[in-house]
Amino acid sequence: MITKRKKNTRQRGSKTHGWGAKKKHRGAGNRGGRGKAGTGKRADQKKPTILKKYGKSYFGKFGFKKPNKNNIKAINLEYLEKNLEELLKNKLIKQEKDTFIINLKDLRINKLLGSGKITRRFKIIAERFSKNAKEKIEQLGGEISKK
């Protein structure tokens, strides 16, 4: 196999690198702008075909959506009450006598909400929780604490 020298190394010292006059191969102005510039934004030559192909959203400025830094994954007390057996079976929560110990971090949840009725005693460790959830847990003799 023949090893071929790169084109640009052969053109070292040649001022124009094979593009003729010095003016020619300059910047974006030489090619009428960058990207889709000159596609009929001001004049009407290409505008109808662009609108047909891409729709009205082709022209104009558009913003961006901020990434959601507060990724709150919430769960209701009702869910815990209904799925206790399943969570125990999968060893995601523990049971001591009549109290269920739940670390919400193990469930990949960072907030506890208080909708739904509960009939059992819980000891919950959570990053965040609502006032309503705290009241309902403490009414039944349970406790809730921040991680």
- Could you say what the CATH architecture of the largest domain is? Ribosomal Protein L15, Chain: K, domain 2
- Sheet with the most strands: spatial strand order: 2-3-5-7
Helix content: 10-25%
DSSP strand tally: 7
How far apart are the first and last residues' alpha carbons, in Å? 66 Å
Biggest sheet descriptor: 4 strands, mixed
Q: What sort of overall outline do the alpha carbons produce when their principal axes are compared?
A: elongated
The CATH topology annotation of the largest domain reads as Ribosomal Protein L15, Chain: K, domain 2
Could you characterize what this model shows?
There is one protein chain. By secondary structure, the chain is an alpha/beta fold. The protein folds into two domains: 28-64, no CATH class; 74-146, Ribosomal Protein L15, Chain: K, domain 2, CATH 3.100.10.10. The protein is built from five helices and seven strands; from the N terminus they run H-H-E-H-H-E-E-E-E-E-H-E. A four-stranded mixed β-sheet has the order 2-3-5-7, covered by helices on one side. The chain is elongated and about 90 Å long. It starts with 6 loop residues before the first helix and ends with a strand.
